[in-house]
Design a protein that fits this description.
With about 70 residues, the protein is mainly α. About 85% of the residues lie in helices and about 0% in strands.
Length: about 70
């Protein structure tokens, strides 16, 4: 099961890297991809743990703002 979960995250990370490269961030695409992956997965974990729907839109807005600044 661990390998299956790992493969999913590897595929998602690779896809994100490709997206950042396409956006012109070849030099730091890996770092940006891991940052976004970590942030979104952390948000999903916290939402599931604390069941606080009010925090979700705030964090999504912050992620969108970060992406817009790149």
């Amino acid at each position: 099961m661990k390998n299956d979960a790992s493969r999913i995250f590897v595929l998602f990370r690779e896809w994100l890297v490709l997206q950042f490269i396409r956006l012109g961030h070849q030099q730091n695409a890996e770092t940006l991809a891991m940052h976004l992956l970590t942030r979104t997965q952390g948000l999903a974990t916290m939402m599931s743990t604390f069941n606080d729907d009010k925090f979700y839109p705030i964090e999504i807005r912050a992620i969108k703002d970060w992406l817009d600044c790149l």
